[in-house]
Amino acid sequence: MQVHAPIIEHRRIADDIFLLTLSVPDIAGSAEPGQFIHIKCGSSFDPLLRRPFSLSMIDKEAGNISVIYEVRGRGTKILSTCPVGQTLDIMGPLGSSFSISHISPQSGAVLVGGGIGAPPMASLAQALIGKGLKRVTVLLGAASKEKLLPEEIFTRTGAEVLIATDDGSAGYQGFVTELLPSQVSGGEVGTPVVFACGPEGMLKAVGSFCLSNGIPCQLSLESVMACGVGACQGCVCRVLRRGSVEYVRVCTEGPVFDAGEVIWDD
Ligand code: FES
User: Fold this and answer.
1) Which atom of ligand 1 is nearest to the CA of 252?
2) Which end is more exposed in the chain, N or C (fewer Cβ atoms within 10 Å of the end residue's Cβ)?
3) Span from the CA of 206 to the centroid of ligand 1 (angstroms)
4) CATH for 108-222, among 3.40.30.10, 3.40.50.80, 3.10.450.330, 3.20.20.80?
5) 122: CA distance to ligand 1 center in Å?
6) Which top CATH class is 2-94?
7) Ligand 1 centroid – CA 129 distance (Å)
């Protein structure tokens, strides 16, 4: 659906990274973790294209949704100047969501979020804990402390958070994927389910590790998107389904896929 939604919160939370909350009950009511909204960042036709943003928080009761974004170009630069009270033209909820209905409350879940790809892990953690999962761990990675999302965005869902930065300025020094093996070794909740969202290299590493170890894993792919609704074919990727290679659109059939079906370009 396309609606005009008022901004009720908009603030900088890290280096060039902003939290934006919109009051939009119709979208909040039907949105699920993993889905995204498409925001028209400027007035009139500048910039022409909308920008996709994953949902970092879904408050169905209050009718609010939040996104977290980094200023990377003209669209997000304009968006970052929009004040509380302004209305934004948004479409959503769009795309597929993480599949969690089959997960038992006795299971654990490990959520791997890298860089500005990490925000949907907050809404996912919120949903998993809402389902009664006893152990939900977020592995939160960033290049440095300055680019790290505030830990509190994830801990307030009830999840445990472990941090890794490439330069060691916060938490473990190294890639966030290096924290994964110790978190999936079983224990009281058995082998957990893994979810990941972040840069392609991270997704490849998480997917490959989980496939080699027989761990169920869902990946949220990042893609450049133009229309966001399946019309332009600009976000096509390849997946393996029923033994055949299929071309699918990240914006409609995705962005969430099982790790075993994603075919990576070399
Ligand atoms: Fe146009 Fe996906 S962005 S088809």
Assistant:
1) 2
2) C
3) 25
4) 3.40.50.80
5) 25
6) mainly beta
7) 32
DSSP state of 230: S
Q: Where are the domains of the chain?
A: 2-94, 108-222, 223-266
Pocket probe for ligand 1: among 227, 237, 247, the residue whose CB has the most ligand atoms within 8 Å is 227
How would DSSP label each residue in 168-208? Answer: SSSSEES-GGGGHHHHSS-GGG-SPEEEEES-HHHHHHHHH
Ligand 1 geometric centre to CA of 248 (Å): 10
Average pLDDT, the chain: 93
The model's pLDDT over 1-17, given as tens digits with 9 standing for 90+, comes to 899 999 999 999 988 99
- Return all residues near 99 (Cβ < 8 A) that are at least 6 apart: 218, 256
Q: How distant, in Å, are the alpha carbons of 11, 83, 84 from that of 52? A: 19, 19, 20
From 36, 53, 249, mutation site for ligand 1 pocket: most ligand atoms within 8 A of C-beta:
249
Angle at 21 between CA 132 and CA 80, to 5 degrees: 140
Residue 40 tokens read as 């028209």
pLDDT tens, residue by residue, 169-226: 999 999 999 999 999 875 655 678 999 999 999 999 999 999 999 999 999 998 888 8
Distance CA 10, CA 82 (A): 8
* Structure-token pair, residue 210: 């989980």
Q: What is the pLDDT of residues 36-65, one digit of tens each?
A: 999 988 766 666 678 899 999 999 999 999
Q: What is the CATH number of domain 223-266?
A: 2.10.240
Q: 198-237 in b/e burial notation, b at 16+ Cβ within 10 A?
A: beeebbbbbbebbeeeebbbbbbbbeebebbeeeeeebeb
